[in-house]
Design a protein that fits this description.
Blueprint (H helix, E strand, L loop, with lengths): L4 H8 L3 H9 L8 E2 L5 E2 L2 H15 L4 H12 L5 H42 L13 H11 L7
Antiparallel strand pairs: 1-2
Helix pairs in contact: 4-5
Amino acid sequence: MDLSIGEVAERSGLSVHALRFYEREGLFPNPVRRLSNGRRIYHEEDLEWLAICTKLRSSGMSLATIRQYMELVGQGPGNEHERLELLRRHEHRVEAQIRELQETLDVMRHKVRIYEDHVHRGDADRLWNPSHPDTEAQSTTHQECHPREGRR
C-alpha cells in the first residue's frame, strides 16, 4: 500500500520535516520513491523501519550509528555478527544511562521525602540555606546533599 508523507507522519508520530530529514540523511533502507510530480511514496516497511529508528534515536543512538546499522541490514545475510556487536554496544550504553538515571531518581526521591517531612512538620525554613549556616542547617545540609549518609 502506498502512503503519502502526511500519512506516514501521522502514523509514525514524526513530523513531515523529520521524515524529509531522515531521507536526506540516508536513514531509509530503500530510497524513497517519488511520483512524476515529485511527491514521495512510502510503504508499510518504511513505517516498520521508522518505528525501530525512532526507538534507536530516543535511546541515544547517533545518526551515524543508525546509518551504519541500516547499511549492514541492507547488505543482507552474512554480517549478523557485526549487527549484533553494534546493537550490544548500544545496549550497554543504554543500560549505563538507566543506571545513572536510577541513581538520579533515588536522590530526587530522597530529597522529596526530606522536603515533605520538613513541610509537614512546619520547619521547612530550617532546610539548607547557605546564608544561615547554623547548626541545624549544617546537619540538614549534610542530610540533603548526602542521602545515604545523612538520612534521619
